[in-house]
Amino acid sequence: MIDKNSIATIDFRQIHEIISFRRSRALLTVNHENLLSAWEVGAFVSERLQNSAWGSKTVMQLSEYLRTQDPTLRGYSRRNIYNMVLLYDTYSSLQFAQYQEKLNLGQIIQFQTGQIVQFQTAQFPNFLNLTTLTNHFEILNACKTVEERVFYVLYSHKEQLSIKELKRCIKNDAYSSVLGEKQGFSKGLKDTYPQAVPMLKDTLQVGFLELPKKHSEKRLQKGILDNMKDFVLELGKDFLFVDKEYALQVGNSTFKLDLLFYHRGLQCLVAIELKTGKFKPEYMGQLEFYLEALDRDVRHSNENPSIGILLCQETDRSVVEYAMSRSLSPTMIAKYERLFIPKEILQRSLGEFIHFLNPQEQFAQKGIN
Fold first, then answer.
1. Highest mean pLDDT among 123-132, 133-142, 194-203
2. Per-residue pLDDT tens digits for 193-248
3. Cα–Cα distance for residue pair 324/341, rounded to 1 Å
4. Strands 268-278, 253-263: parallel, antiparallel or unpaired by DSSP?
5. Burial class (CB in 10 A: 0-12, 13-18, 19+), 97
6. Can you name the residues that pair with 317 across neighbouring β-strands?
7. Residue 297: is its pLDDT beyond 80?
8. Do the beta carbons of residue 188 and residue 330 sit within 8 Å?
9. 241 forms bridges with which residues in the sheet?
10. What's the rounded Cα separation, in Å, for the pair 319 and 279?
11. How far apart are the C-alpha atoms of 185 and 357, rounded to whole Å?
12. What gap in Å lies between CA 309 and CA 279, rounded to an integer?
């Protein structure tokens, strides 16, 4: 006999999927129109400022005029109008055009014609659709190089960052953490998850834990548990927390893993061991033992091999390189920094990162031409 309730549930689920899909499409359309509006206003005002037809006072008068004409209109303060000019000037510039050609950004930056009354604007890059107008304004004002700006647009899209999360990532210099030279990755991790390496960080900024200079592993663990949302954002938003002090039964002995996570994108368990001192090679044996126990006794048949992360307060680059050079387990060594320490801005290619994101496919999925 056919279960009508089961059929109804399936039908309801399909209807919910239709609504969710159309809602997401509507949000994409609204964001695109907001960006186009900012682009065209920025182009108009930029042209007037450059030919000296307008001055700073005129921009203020424009803001007041718009507010008078439509009191419901939001987002056109003097500051935001200048942000629109900055958006247009930055992404219509020769420097940006040369940079996108250098990085072969043609795979993600496709152009369409933008036009407003009285004159033709420069072509609007669909690259801008990857994040919100508010995020763009933050990136433009906080980052001074084209490399950084392109990175944070891509990173905002990949991690679906809110403005608050984006500000924190910029403050923590995610640019350097993600794209910097990484030596703490084992051969096994690179071979098993080559697509993950560009997104994993070997340096985590944990200033939000407010750790004293001398602290115990228990203090570090408690700080992470009390600030799990910030810690997951620092790790990457695909990480899901599973448990603390996760018990692994091997023979007649019980071993406790400091932190256990699950990575949605990689579909695997992630074991994190905490060390408040300097990295020692013998720590790797313990971590690999935990991975073996997870893969044999905990991992499901549809999941990929578990990953191990050893989070230490200090690392010696040479010792790390020696320790990881022959490791066939998917492991990595990461360092945590207690304080938000400014780093030298990187000047390097984003090619590997862009390849990982596979943006061309993402555009196709969203129907962006």
1. 133-142
2. 988 777 788 888 888 888 888 899 999 999 999 999 989 988 888 899 999 999 99
3. 27
4. antiparallel
5. middle
6. none
7. yes
8. yes
9. 261
10. 8
11. 20
12. 12
